[in-house]
Design goal:
Blueprint (H helix, E strand, L loop, with lengths): L1 H19 L2 E6 L8 H11 L3 E5 L5 H17 L4 E4 L3 H6 L3 E4 L6 H8 L4 E6 L2 H6 L5 E4 L19 H7 L4 E3 L8 H6 L4 E4 L1 H4 L4 H11 L16
The structure holds ligand 3NM.
Length: about 230
């Protein structure tokens, strides 16, 4: 009972944090050697990242679980929600805060059943229609805005639909795909409020400094709680 109460408390904190988050980063083994993951996690925390996802395409579930186990305490102690890519069962197994799934993965209900009722669920969307159709999730990704080597098979969708999607969708929208320090201003001018930056952070020689610069441009006041993350019981 006590454990369950603690878990619900943590889930509430993660949902609140998501409501104010502007900068979402990835610990992506496409860019980070496993041996460096803990050091990179510390850098992300020190930079002030708001949400982090562990992404390890092509790695087996057990090694992803070990990776999550190794970095979860670092993010948890900083109050930063940790999301696992693709594997909802790992949310229960590791105590992570949520799971991110794609359009071609399992249905959202299945992900929630496997991850647990309190888990945060994120969904990738690649068009305004997909963004508007997202149901039962706590946030969406919207992109790729620009073509990106991190997700090479997906065509860029551009900036022109960002404003309309923000008018029509009330849950947090994280724009994603090819966003860097050099083009962030154009993304924000197009109407974005929240972004995911992967290679733009992980390929930087100064992860902390890059995150701080992105946060400054995002005008990041975490108290500025636009958007709603409420979900029906
Ligand atoms: N998902 P970078 S784009 C993981 O559009 C991912 O759903 C995308 O990495 C989507 O910041 C993307 O290096 C890659 O371009 C983002």
């Amino acid at each position: 009972m006590q454990l369950e109460r603690r878990r619900r408390h943590a889930a509430g904190i993660a949902l609140n944090t998501l409501a104010t988050a502007r900068l979402y980063g990835l610990l992506d083994l496409g860019y980070v050697a496993k041996a460096d993951a803990v050091a990179v996690a510390h850098g992300m925390v020190e930079g002030g990242i708001h949400v982090v996802q562990v992404r390890a395409k092509g790695f087996d579930v057990d090694s992803i679980a070990r990776l999550v186990d190794s970095v979860l305490p670092i993010f948890r102690s900083a109050g930063i929600p940790l999301i696992v890519n693709d594997h909802p069962a790992l949310v229960r197994a590791t105590g992570a805060d949520g799971v991110h799934i794609g359009q071609d993965d399992m249905p959202v209900e299945e992900a929630r059943r496997l991850a647990g009722a309190d888990a945060l669920i994120g969904l990738s969307t690649h068009s305004p229609d997909q963004a508007r159709a997202a149901q039962g999730v706590d946030y969406i990704g919207f992109g790729p805005l620009f073509s990106t080597p991190t997700k090479p098979d997906y065509p860029a969708i551009g900036l022109q639909d960002i404003a309309a999607v923000h008018r029509d969708v009330s849950i947090p929208i994280f724009c994603i795909g090819g966003i860097k320090q050099g083009n962030l201003d154009s993304v924000l001018s197009a109407g974005a409020r929240r972004v995911v930056v992967v290679s733009g952070i992980l390929e930087s020689s100064d992860i902390r400094g890059t995150i701080r610069d992105l946060l400054a441009r995002l005008g990041s006041e975490k108290a500025d709680a636009e958007g709603s993350t409420s979900r029906p019981d």
